[in-house]
Amino acid sequence: xxxxxxxxxxxxxxxxxxxxxxxxxxxxxxxxxxxxxxxxxxxxxxxxxxxxxxxxxxxxxxxxxxxxxxxxxxxxxxxxxxxxxxxxxxxxxxxxxxxxxxxxxxxxxxxxxxxxxxxxxxxxxxxxxxxxxxxxxxxxxxxxxxxxxxxxxxxxxxxxxxxxxxxxxxxxxxxxxxxxxxxxxxxxxxxxxxxxxxxxxxxxxxxxxxxxxxxxxxxxxxxxxxxxxxxxxxxxxxxxxxxxxxxxxxxxxxxxxxxxxxxxxxxxxxxxxxxxxxxxxxxxxxxxxxxxxxxxxxxxxxxxxxxxxxxxxxxxxxxxxxxxxxxxxxxxxxxxxxxxxxxxxxxxxxxxxxxxxxxxxxxxxxxxxxxxxxxxxxxxxxxxxxxxxxxxxxxxxxxxxxxxxxxxxxxxxxxxxxxxxxxxxxxxxxxxxxxxxxxxxxxxxxxxxxxxxxxxxxxxxxxxxxxxxxxxxxxxxxxxxxxxxxxxxxxxxxxxxxxxxxxxxxxxxxxxxxxxxxxxxxxxxxxxxxxxxxxxxxxxxxxxxxxxxxxxxxxxxxxxxxxxxxxxxxxxxxxxxxxxxxxxxxxxxxxxxxxxxxxxxxxxxxxxxxxxxxxxxxxxxxxxxxxxxxxxxxxxxxxxxxxxxxxxxxxxxxxxxxxxxxxxxxxxxxx
Length: 671
Ligand code: NAP
Ligand code: SF4
Hints:
Blueprint: E1 11-13, E2 16-18, E3 22-24, H1 37-50, E4 55-61, H2 79-94, E5 98-103, E6 116-117, E7 131-132, H3 135-154, E8 159-164, H4 169-174, H5 189-207, E9 212-220, H6 229-239, E10 246-251, H7 271-280, E11 285-287, H8 294-302, E12 308-311, H9 313-317, H10 321-326, H11 344-348, E13 377-381, H12 385-396, E14 400-405, H13 413-417, H14 426-439, E15 443-446, E16 460-463, E17 467-469, E18 482-484, H15 485-489, E19 498-502, H16 506-516, H17 526-532, E20 556-560, H18 576-585, E21 589-591, E22 594-600, E23 603-608, E24 611-616, E25 619-622, E26 626-628, H19 631-638, E27 644-645, H20 657-669
Parallel strand pairs: 3-4, 3-12, 4-5, 5-8, 6-7, 8-9, 9-10, 10-11, 11-12, 13-14, 13-16, 14-15, 16-27, 18-25, 19-20, 19-25, 20-21
Antiparallel strand pairs: 1-2, 17-26, 22-23, 23-24
Bound molecules: NADP nicotinamide-adenine-dinucleotide phosphate and iron/sulfur cluster.
The site of NADP nicotinamide-adenine-dinucleotide phosphate (NAP) has 25 residues, from helix 16.
């Protein structure tokens, strides 16, 4: 029997029987608008189907121009669209899977000038302001949904999903926060739901009785004045008789100021909301958000809290997630660490989505690890993520690989990151690589500081020696109460009660979170997380959210930066606001435009706006960037020996795990 019997069991939705309960949830890939995007999308989805995913839901496609997410964004309105999509549906069907197309009207989240919404209320996350739809526009938009559904069937899709969550148009109609109409489409809870019902009815009629109709429903808006859970359940009960075959749950609008998918969100943190829907629905309910392991999925399904699970990012991280789960190889899954760095941050920057831990995602046709014809020997120096990616990728191609790591454990920067509260997921990447090193027979030498002599007999040498913390040339930097972030995070230096952090980049923020943490991390306790962010399951509370709470801090921390720009300006697009909010909740003081004069026994003397002052501190922590560790590479240069340089050793200025793993994989693919 499978280790995950519920996850691996078949289920019937509408007229389709799926072999297991892993659905690829909708996620925009950025390929929808790319010149060769549909060929690449076909390869992307087909690889996930071959990996065991039973049903794919595409990224959102607009039913008309106004509903496109961006200027020129993907729509399904013409025969040319049908032709492009057929590449995708054919590939998925040839691979033995099912696929439905999500119909998404962006409403006030569309980032083009002709955006429309129920009322002319600008979204706080959009620089464009919408126009209120006329009654005629509402009618024609409903018709457009039906037309697009017909075209989707023509393109070979097995059905469609109506996007009714995350704060897009349909969700906006349902919510008193964004629908202030007083005609037949607003004014009361019943009238606000009318648009969602009319669209669903139209789509079902266009699809006929047999094709699959999924509705993505917002079970918790998490915005002030949003729909209450009680209203959502009423909506669900009205949708079902219109011919909806399954509900996929959506959590939180994009403008919500509550983290919903970041790595600091506990796994399955919002399952109570899905369960509330499941308790009133008679059709299958699909759970979403922070379900990234088969264990979590199995727990949800076996407890009867949902019927299926929708994973999006975890299937970017590992296209074989479902197959590995079915075969009982859960420990071989490359786990999504919810960093958003290569997926959502790319999408919001107008780039193609990929994955930090799996750089092949979205590049299936380009980055291919083919078996080697000549089994050459490869030395990889450095057991951080760049080195491990290179070693495992090269070994998977059939090379004889030896990995040298100077410390007594692998992991490099991830070994430190995983100690940050809210970044516990980073341990999964180390677990995954350790398993792959073993499986591919890589010889791992720990505590081994490789020398040029050690590397003499290898055909290929890959240098991934990483970085060391930058120690700025400041008076007093050698004092005993000064430590690098690495010393603090590794427990080699114990910080006092008053701490000054120099440097407000990603690592400055991480170190501040580490030092202010009191008690267990909320990322490991869903109830504490929800309470802390003011999330409530009370079915009468609008938007299911109140005020976030202050967090008791273990230390008084001040974070300094020399630049006058906002602290944390360079943090991730989709996660930076969470780190900044967390600093505020923990009472961390940030000062920018600071000149460091001298570190002294009492703290640090600085000049701010021309005025000298002493910031008292028991400990001064240096988070002032990194420098490449490159001695070995220089020694090889001196001997005239060739090597491949990757990761932080190549470029410390933009130390970045995404680049490190990508370079490790690419160098191995090119050997
Ligand atoms: P970083 O983002 O470059 O920040 C380094 C900080 O040190 C800056 O605040 C810089 O600002 C200061 N600094 C640089 N040289 C200095 C010097 N000689 N003397 C004094 N201060 C100096 O680097 P990081 O924080 O070490 O992070 C490394 C990489 O990991 C970055 O790419 C970062 O984005 C990524 N990361 C991201 C996250 C996240 O998104 N949550 C978390 C961890 C790491 P001033 O010069 O203005 O003082
Ligand atoms: Fe998950 Fe990060 Fe990969 Fe996105 S980039 S799929 S969040 S691991």
